Amino acid sequence: LDRAFLRSPRGALKIARVLLALATFLCFVASNAHEAYAALAGLETGITLLFLLLYLLRLDAKMRWLFWPLADIFNSVIAALFLLVVCLFAIIVKSNKGTLAGGVLGLILLVLCIVDTVLLCKKISFARPRGRNAPAR
């Protein structure tokens, strides 16, 4: 268990994304909004929770067959694009206050996805060597 990850900015951001996606999901479900709204928020909650558990349990170090930070970047970018479309549509249609609240929370979640992408891009460096044979700096 990587307790340092929970206290890091990336860990706090992942926790905030999970909680905000869950709140967005609950707003859409409680307001009987279109199923696509709730499906997007539910998927974002689940996928972000899986990435949080991946980093928290240090499974990314054990499963080296995939470059996990790059997969996390792709997830954040694709989630941001879907959130932009769906949440703007939810705000424009605003069939009731729950849908409007879910749309606003979804746009805040969009900002967190972009911040997560920026933090991950700063962490990744393709120029420096990785692995056990890399020289210490």
Secondary-structure topology with pairs:
Elements: H1 3-7, H2 9-30, H3 35-56, H4 59-62, H5 68-93, H6 97-123
Helix pairs in contact: 2-3, 2-6, 3-5, 5-6
Q: Which key phrases capture this entry?
A:
0% strand; CKLF factor; elongated; mainly alpha; disordered C terminus; transmembrane helix; MARVEL-CKLF_proteins; 137 residues; membrane; Marvel
In short:
InterPro entries: Marvel (IPR008253), MARVEL-CKLF_proteins (IPR050578). It is built from six helices and no strands.
Structure description:
It comes from Onychorhynchus coronatus (Royal flycatcher). The chain crosses the membrane at residues 12-31, 37-57, 69-93, 99-121. Pfam families: MARVEL (PF01284). Its main location: membrane. It is a multi-pass membrane protein. The chain is 77% helix and 0% strand. It is an all-alpha fold and 137 residues long. The chain has one domain. The chain starts with a helix and ends in a 14-residue tail after the last helix. The model is unreliable at 132-137 (pLDDT under 50).
